[in-house]
Amino acid sequence: MTVQLRPIQPEDLDQFFEHQQDPEANLMAAFTARNPADRGVFDHHWNLILKDPSVIVRTIEHEGEVAGSILLFENEEVPEISFWTARRFWGKGITTSAVDTFLAEYTARPLRARVPQDNIGSIKVLERRGFKVIDEDSDFSNARAAVVKEFIMELV
């Protein structure tokens, strides 16, 4: 399997936007844009990410295709990792490989992640990398139009 992380290229954003149109992926991610089809909001969001020097962001590429993104951002006192993989790449080890590669590049600890409690795939990826549940939280999910419980996980 060929998975690599590389800097974001402008054309990657078109693929990320396409990935965001998948209703099932939005439900699993839970904390998404109110209207995933609004390209203006999407572009504004990514513009903020790409202009923030404290954010580390990479494109996940699998066999030459854009499979998703992975990023690290400062959230209060502990940096957080976040990732999105297009649904057609789920269950193939691509996200796991991307997280492994990212964690090898970014070695500072502790590191946190937030994941909806029913997102078993992402929880497994994080647990297998050594993340442990340290707390729980809940917030309103636009994708689900409901309050969703999430785990706060940490890698030390």
From TrEMBL:
Sequence ranges assigned to domain N-acetyltransferase in this UniProt record: 3-154
Gene3D superfamilies: 3.40.630.30
Alphabetized InterPro entries for the sequence: Acyl_CoA_acyltransferase, GNAT_dom
Protein's UniProt name: RimJ/RimL family protein N-acetyltransferase
